[in-house]
Amino acid sequence: MQNKFSDRPARSLSRHLTPARIFILSFAGLVLGGAFLLWFPFASAKGISFVDALFMSASAVCVTGLATVDVGTDLSTAGQVILICLFQVGGLGIITFSAFLFGIMGRGISFKGREIVQSTFLHTPRRDFFFILRSVILSTLIIESVGVLLLFIRFSQDFPLSKALYYAVFHAISAFNNCGFSLFPDNFVRYQGDLLLNVTVMMLIILGGIGFVVHHEVITRLKDSNARLSLHSRIVLITTTGLIVSGAALFWLFEEQYILRGLSPLTQFLVSLFQSVTPRTAGFNTIDIGQLTNATILLLLVLMFIGGSPGSTAGGIKTTSFALLLLMMWNRWRGNEEVTVANRTVPKELIGRTLSITFASMLSVFLIGSVVMVAGHVETGPQGRQLFVEYIFETVSAFGTVGLSMGVTPNLTDIQKLLIVFMMFAGRVGPLTLAFSLSFREGKKSVVYAEETVMVG
Questions:
Q1: Are 78 and 47 in contact (CB under 8 A)?
Q2: Which site in 57, 118, 221, 292 is 20 to 30 Å from 403, CA atoms measured?
């Protein structure tokens, strides 16, 4: 009898530890553990406060890249290595690494762990779970290794070989995980016209942001011409290409007479393309974001809010959500009740979830952005308007786990830093996932009442 009663707390805890909560707690634990490591004296040159350590840890784990300290000078080599580990594990998920280690050791993985990993990387559960898991790890190592090699070739022209290799490893992992941390105080501004570095970093960002299931399906299609791409992969590839091309064209149009003036045609092209790729959701920059025109700032806000693709290292509402919203409006305009694309009908449940994610994301940005401004005591007049734009940009950048900033990050108060930490965390795990994990009404059936219409539109 004693054992029976002693097992009750364990069973109760297991019942409440849903996959969503395990997912949330794994990231929260990693953020807190990373904060303590970065807070220790060996991780920084002159020492940093715990709030700054927490901010940097959250930014790394949530693969954001916003920084309250200079990574290249304020953190020691040990601190930088800790960051590398944090945004590598944060990009793929600690549950993914745990499942992979259990797999190679021949140990099983729990049903909840399997569900978390599959929901992270796959749009449809598959039987070849461990094959997909190995593919995720293997493709990560291969892509990052190629990135390290290419960046090493470039950095070896400017630094000793050992330092060039270290810089290559740091920036390749940061780029593939869409983190955006850089060891250079000006990020990549000094390399804005360098073809090799720009192309390498952009390809790492894109490959890290389209999702591992897309990698798998594209490689399978290249090997077998009869293999078909899923609707998910087609939407991701088309939307990603459209956003990159349109973003680059609009950036050049808005800045051709301003920040791009005086640059060579090749540099103008590279800067425009790079700034179209990096807001989704990497955070590197080759120009001063604070010097952009208002139209370009608005463009970057839209790109940051959309973010990357599901099953990737990116944040935002995701390219598929953006595409489904456009498809829904297009089908409604044509008089279709259902959302159809490529001879397929998108389930209504998925459309409802897309609308919920988008609304929850907009509400999160509005609420946290408002509190950030109140905590910053924004004044009236031109200076207040400038701070308003900077705080909104910072909040959207945190939600999209982008890392771009107009320069206000180091000047945030401790309260504002904690708010941005929460925004980064919510952006990484998803506002709906975070809300559901806090709900204790799981498993209860909803009551259905009689229908009654209201006027809309």
A1: no
A2: 118
Take residue 328 and report the two structure tokens written for it: 């829904």
Alpha-carbon distance of 148 to 134, in angstroms, equals: 21
State whether residue 347 is helix, strand or coil.
coil
Name 381's Cβ contacts closer than 8 Å, sequence gap at least 6: none
Contact 232, 320 (CB under 8 A): yes
Q: What DSSP assignment string belongs to 263-321?
A: S-HHHHHHHHHHHHHTTTTT---SS-GGGS-HHHHHHHHHHHHH-S-TTSS--SS-HHH
Domain boundaries, the chain: 131-436
Which positions ≥6 away from 197 have C-beta within 8 Å? 151, 154, 188, 191
Contact 180, 283 (CB under 8 A): yes
Contact 6, 103 (CB under 8 A): no
For 364-408, write each residue's pLDDT tens digit: 899 999 899 888 776 666 666 778 888 999 999 999 888 898 888
Q: How far apart are CA 242 and CA 252, in angstroms?
A: 16
pLDDT at 150: 96
Distance CA 385, CA 391 (A): 10
- With 0-12 / 13-18 / 19 or more C-beta atoms within 10 angstroms meaning exposed / middle / buried, residue 54 is buried
For residue 122 the two structure tokens come to: 């796959």
- Neighbour-count burial of 292, counting CB atoms closer than 10 A to its CB (0-12 exposed, 13-18 middle, 19+ buried): buried
Task: Give 118-183 as a DSSP string.
Answer: HHHH-SS--S-HHHHHHHHHHHHHHHHHHHHHHHHHHHTTTS-HHHHHHHHHHHHHHHHTT----S
Q: What percent of the chain has pLDDT over 90?
A: 42
Q: What is residue 342's DSSP assignment? A: T
CA nearest to 372, candidates 320, 424, 325 = 424
